[in-house]
Amino acid sequence: MRLLTISDKVEPVLYSSHIRERVGKVDLVLACGDLPYDYLEFIESSLDAPLCFVHGNHDVPITDRLEQPKLDWAVNLHGRTLQHSGLLLAGLEGCRLYNPGAAYQYTEGQAGWQAFCLGWLLRLNRLRHGRYLDVLVSHAPPFGIHDARDVAHTGFCTYLALLERYHPALMVHGHYHIYDRNAPSDTAYQGVRVVNTFGYRVIELAPRPNGAGWQVLSTRR
């Protein structure tokens, strides 16, 4: 299965008629936040692939359905699970609170509650499918992985606990912008591939030989 993961930066090569030449055939698009809705819709329609997303802290809240896009062509993964062609997905939106009252910003405690509620759905996955999760989609990174020490860009400790407890094959996130090509963006944490998809990545997955979930074959820009 081939995933296109996107976050935080509008890529001219994707926002063009050359998108199919650039990324090839894609089975699923995962958007990790802070991208214009018309950009997401263009990618979804150009690739003719389903798109799932979580909101980033700079996203415009969809409060007035008459003025804002309905996004009925996409699936909001925040706080929910989804199965797509045998792949088990879940998502969590936003980042750490640094501007009180702003949308899609949460304290560590609020993020912990969101993860706790999501955990019940993951345990249902275990009963139904024999495993909890294959891909976790978030905007913010886990604490200490692809994050920074300023308040806005510090990752959530809660996410580390999620990875340790439910062991997805892959976690994709955005939020922290990468301008140094030598900066880490693809990190293994207790058997989980954690990928910062700033801009975009093409990620290839394959079923595990024993049939118990999926494994990451490759990631590339």
Describe the structure in your own words.
The protein has 221 residues and is an alpha/beta fold. The protein has one domain (2-220): Metallo-dependent phosphatases (Purple Acid Phosphatase, chain A, domain 2, 4-Layer Sandwich), CATH 3.60.21.10. The chain is 22% helix and 28% strand. It is built from four helices and 14 strands. It has helices at 19-23, 37-47, 108-129, 157-166; strands at 2-7, 28-31, 51-53, 75-76, 81-84, 87-92, 95-96, 105-106, 135-138, 170-173, 186-189, 192-196, 199-207, 214-220. The strands form three sheets. The chain has a six-stranded mixed sheet, covered by helices on one side. The protein has a six-stranded mixed sheet with strand order 5-6-9-10-12-11, with helices on one face. Strands 7-8 form a two-stranded parallel sheet. Helix 3 (108-129) runs parallel beside helix 4 (157-166). It is globular, with a radius of gyration of 16 Å. It starts with a strand and ends with a strand. The model has no long low-confidence stretch (mean pLDDT 94).
Properties at a glance:
221 residues, alpha/beta, Purple Acid Phosphatase, chain A, domain 2, six-stranded mixed β-sheet, 14 strands, 28% strand, globular
